[in-house]
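Researcher: Batch entry, complex prediction.
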Amino acid sequence: MATTATPHGAHHDDRVYHQFEDYEQQTDSYVIGMWCFVVQEIMFFGALFMAYTLYRWKYQDDFYQARQTLNILWGAVNTTVLLTSSFSMALAVHYAQQKKQALQQACLFFTLLCACAFLFVKLYFEWAEKFRLHHVMGPQFHWTGSGSPAHIQLFFSLYFGMTGLHGVHVLAGIIVIGILMFMTHKNYPSVRDYIPTELVGLYWHFVDIVWIFLFPLFYLMPK
Amino acid sequence: MSEHKDHHITPISTLVGTFLTLVVLMALTIFSSKIDLTPLGNNIANLGIAFVKATLVVRIFMGLAYSSKLAKLFGLAGFVWLVLMGITFGDYATRKWEPVHGWYAKDGGNGNPNDPAPTEQMRVNPDPNPPAEKTEE
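Model: Structure tokens for the complex:
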């Protein structure tokens, strides 16, 4: 390998782009860039968590009535599925760092399956039932239980808004993981390093963390 | 193999341990929600466990525990919105002492319906459309 002099006088490293001092700084820049994005996403969800907290504070009794229609079992299943997918994603990063590509791809594929299972449970077992029972806010809304229907609709607006936005993030995760797997399979130069897997991992763990808070706030809300 | 020295590789045993802890914590939060700890106690248990789980994911799975100080600072920035939330709630929580016209449910606003109607002295701004006063006929 020919060693070319760099402006910094440091030894040349093939993996380092010219705007970075060294490999460590480059890696750190990528990771911090992804964290910037994640922090913005937290602010994005934060506004919704704020709205949820405020309305639950005001209409606690009505919200408790509405929350009793949620199925804790499906919520727990989905939490387990997402935690498992986060674990397999962490394993994928682990294998990517060790350049064990087959194992990395297997872990990514498992993560992808978990993400699809999560969306399937969410849409087929949970949302579909709410449409059938007319619990979706809007002109079709019908509520037979106790509590103010206006406030119950507010609860379901927040429920669909927040789990829906989270679902969109899961869908985006599926697409991103799929692209990463394809590029790794085709051995694109840009994914030979472990960093792309690490960054996709950061995103996926963030999606997991949002659900970690959504689950107790919606499904386990006390009276 | 020298290139493997410049980044931390989390051992599989740590990842497995973290995953099992997360699942146990999830079971614990469901269990604690089934027993009555008073609403405040249940909320603290729910959110406390959620914070522990999130911290585990951030530190181990996202690897912030092994990252540079700058990356840790950015991770910490994710909690800034909690401060904003606290400030916003400072507003809502003190409206009983610092009344806002139109907030009270009994005043036609969308405040907590359980709050008492504000007294005349509590109203900062007078009603913009007061009921027409009786005029002499």
